[in-house]
Amino acid sequence: MSDISLAVEGLATRIDTTAGELRAVDGIDFELRRGECFALVGESGCGKSMTALSLLRLLPEAGRIASGRVLLEGHDLLALPEAAMRAVRGRRVAMIFQEPSTALNPVLTVGRQILEVIDRHLGIGGEEAKVRALALLDSVGIPDAARRFDEYPFQLSGGLKQRVMIAAALAADPEVLVADEPTTALDVTIQAQILELLARLQAERGMALLLITHDLAIVAQMAHRVAVMYAGQIVELATREQFFRAPQHPYSRKLFDAVPTPEKRSGELAVIPGQVPSLLGEFRGCRFAERCDEAFERCKWVAPSLVALPGGHLSRCLLREKGPAAPPGEVTVLAGKRSSTAGESDVLLDVADLKVHFPIRRGLFKRTVGHVKAVDGVSLQIREGRTLALVGESGCGKTTVGKAILRLLAPTGGTVRYGGADLAALSGEDLRLRRRAMQIVFQDPYASLNPRMRVGDILAEGMRALGVGGDEAGRAARIGVLLDQVGLPRDAVERYPHEFSGGQRQRIAIARALAVEPRLIICDEPTSALDVSVQAQILNLLRELQARLGLAYLFITHNLSVVEYLAHDVAVMYLGRIVEQGTVDEVLGSPRHPYTEALLSAVPQIEGQRRMVRLSGDLPSPANPPAGCHFHPRCPKALPECARDWPETARLSPTRTVNCLLYRASSAASIN
Amino acid sequence: MPVLLATDVLVWLLVAAAAGYALYCRRHAHLAAPWARVFRSPPAIASAVVLAFYVGVGLLDSLHYRPQLPQKADGGQKAYSVEVLSVLDWSLAHLRGRNEKTYSAPLAIRSFAREQVELPGGKIAREFPRLQFGGAHLAKEEHWASDVGWRVFKGLGFAAAILLAAAIGMRILRVRWPEVPWHAAVWALGGVLVLLMPALVLSGGYHVLGTDKVGNDVFYQALKSIRTSLVIGTVTTLVLLPLGIALGIMAGYFRGWVDDLIQYVYTTLNSIPGVLLIAASVLMMQVVIDRHPEWFATAAHRADAKLLVLCAILGLTSWTGLARLLRGETLKLSELEYIQAAHALGVRGGRVISRHILPNVAHIVIIAMVMDFSGLVLAEAVLSYVGVGVDPSTSSFGTMINSARMEMSREPVVWWALATAFCFMFVLVLAANLFADAVRDGFDPRVRVGALAKAAA
Asked: What CATH architecture applies to the domain A384-412+423-671?
């Protein structure tokens, strides 16, 4: 028996669309070895999910496999009749999907869904199957498996659901596990747990794991071998060590450059111009040629084949015919242009003790029986021309803070001082006219632009409402300037949002915010829906605008690498409260609060590993937060008195505060 | 003298509005695209052709006038008949005036009932007398078959000629709009013509679909009923739409007590049995109308007022479904980020509704409108059957069915009035439903094929 468990040969998948035939996967070859984690990396639209679905023959209605073979232990899966294929799926090749909330059937208990797999593939029923299912739940790290067995998916958190899905996938002991972006929908601390679990299970069971992801850091942490996909083809294939030492395809190199890191803080991020080409129709030359800095004349006419380099490294690039490229040079670290000390600019916005509580109503007369304390006493200051990053896991209330500052939600208590007025207390016309000062850019560029309005109308709307830009002609001129500022062509005015790509739409959203000349822009995860190369474009734009216009940003995100690149100050939120606040260097460089430490250690890194601080469990519900310090049930350093009171704010330096009992003594000492 | 009935005004306003909407759509890509999708579906094209026939008849029947009476010798001022006629009546004059005494079967030349006839010899016999008009031109009864055959043949000849012209026209249209399935249009047109042309030719000498109890031509009645159905189906939406849109969006957008109030209103309205509520309101309004004959110049005006009142009442009682749909959609939309961005930009509530919410629920309104149409046509039939529908002098499918109900128990059975009403209404509702389905598929973003492109990611 060879050690190759699954081999893909010349796989090509076509999708019929109204616009024509889409070559989603265009002739790819790779093999999965037993006990190996093989990562398939690429941006959205490059065909990596279609590859996974083709392996299992789970393509959508309009898709079909045009050619190729998928050999599982030497038997071609594509030649099997559908009935035989059903016996392969789940039994020998299992799949984990991205979205745990939709991949489980909401009306069946967790146990039933696992028993179903065991019954279908192993023919085991009754008590024996239940014992097996409980053992599985246990092995994927679900605490109190016996109780969870009889629960419904809605009673579980996202991380637990993903664990259940993994348990169901592993129920029949498959040889190959396909994981399609298994952690993209999860928070970083949960992501760390799941990745660790996958790595452990794979090692224990000797499975082959096909990991599909867009995150190079996850690849660095998990994979043994890596394939980079671009426009339906594999453009580079190498072992992890080879790939991360010296990527051999210009696209891979660009991807690395586009990832924001602290070292790149002072300069611009590399961007890949343009976007992934449409996969309709034929290609003549290299698919990446249009976006490639190193392209030369031949690239346009000659489609490159995979060039074998020493060590079995493959690269689909004409340049590599002359030999391998050297490892990329060190990133030149310029002296930090950014001021890392606060206090030199004026305070623009002063939020004190902000509270947003949502009442929980029950019963016939909708009596209030409790409150979800989404934001519970948040204080922060944003200074002119600086960026404050608000960091935390989903559900911690960071978006609610942003919306409450903008008065898109009514705060329950606290003050939001801007220019001498308390925005939290204003209403009606007073509030409306003050909206000019602050604007927001949302996460999803597809939901944040009205599809029925032309770009020109979208940009003019706020100016009209707030009387900016004088008359119609003045506004039209200003729209032209705005489009220049965000790097869009001026003829965009007449077009509708659907004619633009995600990154371009986000530029329109930024231009809309800029239209009323705000001093502060609240950016609510503005890049998390974008690919890494497009994310780099938007981050560059935001920094450029800050330098040019002196804008302040409140940057709400869960992506810490973006924070390191963009922010001056950081506030870390946990369950409606800020637990640590300070400059980027202070907080990310030497985190003090145990939660910050855990959060930072959970972020996968491309280079080197941080010491992992493992967090158990999930974020508790803000409707019923733990007593005392909200973090203490998960805190590895918790003291007995943590359960009693919310810790006072301890000031560790002029710019830095921590809310943790561990620093009470030290702060008292430093004050004395 | 032209006469403008209230419903005429509304019908023509609707036509103008539809034309305006079509022009508006042509200029806005996001509106034109779903309609283009609708007209790419063969069932939609076919049903549009059938609907066009109905609409054509209905519009001809919506141009009313009072004919001038013959000038008196003294040359006084012109006098007009009290009878209000429409262009359809004028073009079908041969059908309108020629009433028999009572029932006669389709294409019959003799009455359906025996009568006592005095024979030349003075003897009295009971026999089926010849009809006054049906087949009166035939010298001998044996010629009936050949005459009918010839007329059908002539009708088919006309149909073929028109169809040929249409097929040639289609080739030209295909160059301009190649993606529209014109063959479906031609097939549907063929179907309509093959039935209609022989019927028209035959109606010159016979009662194609027989006569009813008082001798009226059933074919003529059915054609007249079309307008009633269309008016009910479209004018009602005029009442229903503003209510449904305004209340639905207000409930979803303002929430709080506005939402509670509107929800209570429509929940209450929904819990009263529909027919009961409508019957009570209609009867009340009819009493008011009957008590004030001085409000109306002619009987036609009065009948028209009753029709209008029926539309209004149907509209007032059936906006709840649309309001509920729009409330839900507005609730969803107002959580969307572009609406939040508008709030952050200080855009006022009214503008948010008109610029952001209304255009984004427009597809639901269109879908609801075409889906409601057939329901309303059927509702009218039910109400008229119960006896609370239109004025008895207005022909409608409901009144036709109502008067045909007793005839079903006769022996031999008088089937044609019921069958005619059934077929006309069935074709109308079927076409409307098929069209509505295509509209829903075209407008509903969830059924778009575009989802595939997303799946490819």
From this structure: 3-Layer(aba) Sandwich (3.40)
